[in-house]
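Changelog note: in this version the structure field was regenerated for every chain. One regenerated record is shown below for reference.
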Amino acid sequence: MKNLKDNEIAIQQIDKCLPQTHCQKCGFVSCMPYAKAIVKKKTTIYKCEPGGTKVVEKIAKITEEEIVKTNIKEIPPELVYVNPEACIGCALCLPKCPVDAIAGAEGFLHTVIVDECNGCGLCIDSCPVDCIVEKKRPKHIPWTDIKAENSKRKFYEKKARDKKYKLENRQDNLEHLKRLLFK
């Protein structure tokens, strides 16, 4: 990859072959920053656990790297479930899910939208009563390229919504301070 245009193309190609679970197991907040770091030679091609060997081989072909390490972790995306007997409706899991695959509201039982769950597991540690558990993804609900694309879209939609919400809150706080200061 010699020029900026080639780098941009490589980043897009790598991002497209990543599973889009946004699990952060690679050490990056989502798949795109990981793809950028690979192209900039700031990380290795071996960090995508959910992608495993298949993804490493695709990335190696794009980057023209020789695969040196063959003992890659094969950890396909799992699913998470909420135990309805234990859920207290605290809603701490909702903001942790990068793709809004958890349905519920504060004070109510939560559930995982199984067809949208990317298996990242980021919600698990947020539960104060340990009612969220990881289970093996059933064969009839595989992680597909279509689900990866939907996961990517939902991830960026949530990110944009969160950013807008933060900006609105800042504006509201600023207006409140102005009212207090200039009464």
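Spot check on this record: The chain has two domains: 4-63, 77-183. The chain is about 40% helix and 5% strand.
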